[in-house]
């Protein structure tokens, strides 16, 4: 029988987090490092990644990589395996946003969003899973969204991408779970990040609307997502797979 707190420990795990230099990705890295994992942050901006690693300390490192460079996924996993160790947990968190009326969203813009969120995530998943199958151990975590769960106007490409993630989680989990690999997602509600503060502080009406439909009547904190990520990648959730977990203060069930 597992015991507390070791059941929530990530000691011995190597976690690769895409989009890990800022925001929710960095919040997950903070919590996972605190839980004992070795964390590798992946992103396009070296200075941002280096600053995050400096904050996180000796248990963290980074690799510069654009997830849309699909042919580079295998080389990235090989490099991390060589320099840090076999990746035991992949967090597909990298993403881009596009706020635009649906009828003004071009096919090229739509495809760019899908390439980052979906095709890039699949490339990394495909690169990392063979090793996990060989070791019969691994977790894959996606950052979904409230847009995965209900309609939000002016973000049709983002909605399509985040909704596809929910389907990928179900499909991957049924295919990989027999090999000891669990696949889940977190669907964050409105979280207080630097980006959300910039968006909401200058728009009190929008902020009031968001808080008005949030049963807890407040924004979440980045660490709320971070600790949920620890749970879903730790032995505490060893019988949990194929799940999209809302961490949203009740938004997805409230009225």
From TrEMBL:
Alphabetical UniProt keywords: Membrane, Oxidoreductase, Transmembrane, Transmembrane helix
Name listed for the protein in its UniProt record: 3-oxoacyl-ACP reductase
GO-annotated molecular function: oxidoreductase activity
InterPro entries xrefs: KR_dom, NAD(P)-bd_dom_sf, Sc_DH/Rdtase_CS, SDR_fam
UniProt similarity note: Belongs to the short-chain dehydrogenases/reductases (SDR) family.
Organism: Nibricoccus aquaticus
Residue stretches making up the Ketoreductase domain: 13-193
Positions of transmembrane segments: 6-29, 140-161
UniProt cross-references to Pfam families, sorted A to Z: adh_short_C2
């Amino acid at each position: 029988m597992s015991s507390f707190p070791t059941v929530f420990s990530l000691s011995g795990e190597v976690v690769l987090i895409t989009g890990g230099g800022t925001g929710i990705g960095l919040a997950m890295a903070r919590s996972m490092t605190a839980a004992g994992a070795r964390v590798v942050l992946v992103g396009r901006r070296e200075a941002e990644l280096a600053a995050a690693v400096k904050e996180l300390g000796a248990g963290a490192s980074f690799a510069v990589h654009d997830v849309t460079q699909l042919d580079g996924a295998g080389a990235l996993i090989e490099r991390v395996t060589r320099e840090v160790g076999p990746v035991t947990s992949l967090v597909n968190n990298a993403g881009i946003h596009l706020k635009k009326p649906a009828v003004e969203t071009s096919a090229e813009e739509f495809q760019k969003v899908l390439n980052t969120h979906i095709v890039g995530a699949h490339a990394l998943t495909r690169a990392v899973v063979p090793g996990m199958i060989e070791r019969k151990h691994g977790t894959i975590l996606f950052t979904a969204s409230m847009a995965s769960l209900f309609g939000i106007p002016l973000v049709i490409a983002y909605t399509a991408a985040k909704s596809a993630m929910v389907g990928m989680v179900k499909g991957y989990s049924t295919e990989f779970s027999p090999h000891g690999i669990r696949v889940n997602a977190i669907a964050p509600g409105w979280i207080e990040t630097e980006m959300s503060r910039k968006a909401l502080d200058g728009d009190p009406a929008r902020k009031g609307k968001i808080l008005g439909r949030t049963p807890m009547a407040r924004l979440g904190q980045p660490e709320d997502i971070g600790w949920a990520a620890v749970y879903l990648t730790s032995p505490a959730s060893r019988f949990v797979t194929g799940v999209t977990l809302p961490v949203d203060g009740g938004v997805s069930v409230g009225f």
